[in-house]
Amino acid sequence: MAAKKSGSHLSKNVLQMKFMQRSVLRLEKEQNEEDKQKVIDDEHWVLDLPDYQIKESKYLKDQSYVICEQLQFGRQSFLGCNPEIEKLMQAHKLEQELKVSDEKEKQNSVSDQDMAQRYSSLMGIIAKKFSKKRQRNDEANDDESGEPRSKSFMKPSDD
Amino acid sequence: MEKHIGCLVMPGDVLDCIKPVEENKKVILGPGLIEDGNFIKISKPGILKFRQPGVYWIDCHQKRYVPAKNDSVIGIITQKPGDIFRVDIGGSELASLSYLSFEGATKRNRPDVKIGDIVYAKLLVANKDMEPELVCIDSHGRSSGMGVIRKGGFLFHCHINLARKLLNPECVVLKQLGRRFKFEIAVGINGRVWVKANNEIQTIAMANAVMASELMNNVQIETMCKKLSKVSSGIDED
């Protein structure tokens, strides 16, 4: 900043000297950039279009037949021709069975949401029970005293 | 929607009732279905299939393989320029296979792969506009059945339908043959099948049985396998 200030005060004659050529170039560059900025601000065009929104597709496209038809793994071996591949086949089979049983379990068991709902309602019932009892007690007390009990802290008497 | 499922559809047909079952779940569109604005259009002639929970695809007769991601294919090494192999997988373009994507391969320890070898590999990149890319390892770095297939055997090409049929869990060809014969098979979704049995005669028999099963139903396949095992036991006795 200090250099800029001093530069602006330098006379023409000084700037023409050989050793000042670098700072002259720098000053020119700064001037140019400022001008450019002004031009861009004035002439910056904006397309008058509504905001372009990328719609998320509902579809997963270009899937292979393997996924669509649930095809098996392509390398197979029978009656011990290639024990390595047979091991792999066994593993694939196990995986498949696990998947199927998992799905079955999901269908049979209660879903998380159902569970939460059930529990929330159950909690309500239990809470009601408790509140009723207390209310009952409260009501009895109220009848005795004849005035509504204040909920503020009551200091115990010093006996 | 139900009226279209299991029916013949032609390219250009519009399906406007494919919708997700639940709001936050996506519909899977398989081969032959393309999204065009709000509609789904058909790009292959065939039978529209549906599977729960929301998978749609077209089952059609096809010889030309179109690479799709995660397909396991059988490829033939055709070129070896530098760090990659060019592999013919039957698609419109040769696929590339890096020499580092084999089990146990490092920069120093190159896998022993020659031109003409067949590899069982998985498609890592399969894009309409890009060269397909293969790998011979899974995400854990293990081969899991992929890699170069050696030890002889016989490779033949078939329709892509047959390859899919062989791997379909409901099809009994491989199970029935496997109960009676000792053999090994590698089926690539790209319509290439490699078989190997004890000797050449049995290998050819297996290949013929597999090829013959293309248009058979499960009952016919069973009878064919029974006949085959009878005949082959006769050969062994002689």
Automatic annotation (TrEMBL), chain A:
> What phylogenetic lineage does the species belong to?
Eukaryota, Metazoa, Spiralia, Lophotrochozoa, Mollusca
PANTHER family (alphabetical): M-PHASE PHOSPHOPROTEIN 6 (PTHR13582)
Record field: compositional bias (Basic and acidic residues): 146-159
> What segment(s) does the record annotate as region Disordered?
129-159
UniProt-listed GO biological process terms: maturation of 5.8S rRNA
Q: Which region is the signal sequence?
A: none
Specify the species.
Lymnaea stagnalis (Great pond snail)
InterPro entries, per this entry? Answer: MPP6 (IPR019324)
Protein name listed in UniProt: M-phase phosphoprotein 6
UniProtKB/TrEMBL annotation, chain B:
Q: What GO annotations for molecular function exist for this entry?
A: RNA binding
Identify the CDD domains for this entry.
KH-I_Rrp40, S1_Rrp40
Subcellular localization(s) per the UniProt record? Cytoplasm; Nucleus, Nucleolus
Pfam families cross-referenced by the UniProt entry = KH_6, RRP40_S1
**What name is this protein filed under?**
Exosome complex component RRP40
Alphabetized, the UniProt keywords read: Cytoplasm, Exosome, Nucleus, RNA-binding, rRNA processing
Give a GO biological-process term.
CUT catabolic process
